[in-house]
Every structure is written in structure tokens, then in C-alpha cells.
Amino acid sequence: MRIGVDLGGTNIRAALCSEGNIINQQNHELVHKESLEETLEQLKTLLHAVFHPEIKGIGIGVPSVVDIQHGIVYNVTNIPSWKRVELKDYLEKEFQVPVYINNDVNCFALGEYHYGMARGYDPVVGLAIGTGLGAGIITDGKLFTGANCGAGEVGPMPYLGKTLEYYCSGNFFKVFWQSSAREMAEQAGQGKPAAIRAWEEFGHHFGNAIKIVAYAYDPQAIILGGSISRAFHLFEKSMYRSLTDFEFPESLKKLKILVTANPDITILGAASLVP
User: Fold this and answer.
1) Residue extent(s) of CATH 3.30.420.40 domains in the chain
2) Based on the number of CB atoms within 10 Å of its own CB, is 27 exposed (0-12), middle (13-18) or buried (19 or more)?
3) Neighbour count for residue 129 (Cβ, 10 Å)
4) Considering all CA atoms of the chain, what is the largest pairwise distance in Å, rounded to the nearest integer?
5) What is the pLDDT of residue 16?
6) What is the distance between the alpha carbons of residues 236 and 200, in angstroms, rounded to a whole number?
7) CA distance linking residue 114 with residue 45, whole number of Å
8) In the prediction, which pLDDT does 224 show?
């Protein structure tokens, strides 16, 4: 058994896991985020709630760059007090088991590879679309993180004078439509032309992001996750139209673009960090 943790900027989710199954899960809203001491205490309390004396270790996915070897996390998204946190040392002293930490999108990709939609594919890219845009890469059955846990950070890549993330995340709807992705999805579902057009435009930009990922990593499968992936049906057609000028059409025919089916897959991926 292992514990997996998905540490987001709003909520912490932790679960006792065994062989890809969740045995006991606890969720907690993260409050007092300006206090490092209080946020760490919240994490510790949640881990105690799912702890089992026979676990092999704890795996944690965080929305930041991580010093994987030393378990130090830097500048965690939406948690202002987490500038530099020696999280591995802190938790190992408390629980006396090994702790493994990685980027949350990397954990998403791991979860999909081992237990989800990416089983049987290699290489695989997990692409998370929400408030931001990030990717996790699996090649030869292993997570590829790069030298500084930054591999797959496609969001900051230059695009149309801004970045891919500017056009391929929730930011697109905020900036260009003065709305949210959720609200635009609801309006598109009601058949409102402006919302339908917004999702078509989003799909065009997202298709260009897919091309960059495909050129860079040549994966067998790309698995979409994050809140916006739930609206895939609204931008799927325009995304594929955007792919028609892809340089290698035979490769594109083989590429699978799939949507996650398990909302807890990042937790399972985090647990799989533990050997």
C-alpha cells in the first residue's frame, strides 16, 4: 500500500492506494494559504487520516517545479507561502516512511500510463488544461522530467505574441470573452452561437498546441486532463481541423487523443512514485 497526494492550490486530496485502487480517500480545502506553518499542518493532518502502518511510502504531486532528489518544492501555484519548502524532510520526520515528490501533471501522466487511458501506449504525453497548460511525458515506461523537473512545460512557449497558455487555458475565455470556461460551456450547451464560436476558436489554438507536442515528443497517445478537458466535445472538431497541416500525416493518423476517465488519476499517479 502507498499514499498518493494531489496537492492543488485550492484543495488537498490524499488517499491510501493499493494496486491502482483507492482504499480510503480524504479531501480538504486549503485555507490560510499565506501561512506556511498552517498549510503544512493541514497536509499533515490529512495524511494522518489516511495513514496505514504497512504503507511503503508517500507520493505527492504539486503544481510547481520540484527538486526531485531532495524533495524541495519551489513557488507552488496559488499557495503564496510555499516559496521554498523542504517537504520531503518535513514529512519523513513526521511519518517515518519514504516520501517522493514530483510535479502534479507528471503524476497525472504516470497515473494514466499505469492505470488509465494510456495503458498500452508508449511514448505518452499527459496534457492538463485548466487555469494553466502543462504536460507530463512518459517514454520507455518511465517519467521524463528533464534536469530540473521542467520537461513538458509547454505553457510558456511563445505563441502569437503571447504564450500557448495564454490561448490554451481558461485564460482564453477570461481575456477574449470576459467569461469563464465553465460559463461558456454552459452557454454552448444551450446552443448560443457566441459560445459555440468561442470554443471553436479555442480548439484552433489548442490544435496548434497539440502539433507542438506531437513534433517534440512523437507520442503514441496524448491524454487530456484538467477541468477544460471535460468540454472536449465542444472543441474537438476545430482542434482536428487545426491539425490538417501537420507535416507528418501518417504519424497523425496513428496518434490517439483521449480524455481522462478517472478524476482521481493524479492521486494514483502520485502513489506510483513510491517504488
Assistant:
1) 2-106+265-271, 120-259
2) exposed
3) 26
4) 57
5) 98
6) 8
7) 28
8) 98
**Residues 2-106+265-271, CATH architecture:** 2-Layer Sandwich (3.30)
- CATH top-level class for 120-259? alpha beta
Ranges of H-type helices in 218-261? 232-242, 249-254
Classify the phi-psi angles of 40: left when phi > 0, otherwise alpha if psi is within -120 to 50, otherwise beta: alpha
In sequence order, what DSSP letters do the residues of 34-72 get, joined into one string? T-HHHHHHHHHHHHHHH--TT---EEEEESSEEETTTTE
Q: Using alpha carbons, select from 153, 156, 117 the residue that is nearest to residue 269.
A: 117
Cell numbers at residue 22, please? Answer: 483507492
User: pLDDT below 70 — which residues of the chain?
Assistant: none
Among 76, 101, 75, 105, CA closest to 90: 101
